[in-house]
Amino acid sequence: MTFQLGVFYFFATVLIFASSMVITVRNPVKAALFLVLAFVSAAGIWLLLEAEFLAIVLVLVYVGAVMVLFLFVVMMLDINLVRLREGFGEYLPIGGLVAVLLVAEMVIILGSDQFGPAKMPDPGALPAGHSNTRELGRLLYTFYAFPFEIAAAILLVAIVAAIALTQRRRKDSKYQNPAQQIHINPRERVRMVKMPSEKKV
User: How far apart are CA 149 and CA 179, in angstroms?
Assistant: First the structure.
């Protein structure tokens, strides 16, 4: 076993462990910290694949910005951990079924000739002034343009669904109805009250 293969197995083991802990741990703060460990391990694997741009973006954007935001939100919210543990076993079979379906879809997609590495052009020996960023942009917008558009559409649907779920009506929240505010009688907006300016002695 070479040194590079040993480092790959080390990062892969840490990544699998951290990913499983993100799902199984009950404390949201610990789950976010394990997700940071998973991102750093994935960045190490990207470095082994000579994709330095992706590794740096993963560390700077996700670990440095997104995860800090997640930690602030999780620590500022008053999350009831006892209530969070109640429905864990109830949705476990459905979650396991979804996980099996996702793995099956990934095997089908990566094993096909359309998306797999079989049709990917062989770059051969890389020159001295080779730019990973330029090569990534060229492959992303030419060879993988169709999967890139599918991923963008899926992310758009996820954003709309997240906004729709967070903007649901709650019983304890107060809302304004612009239609009722516009159609109100102007005479009822202000009530004139006559009061004497001075009291008579």
Answer: 39
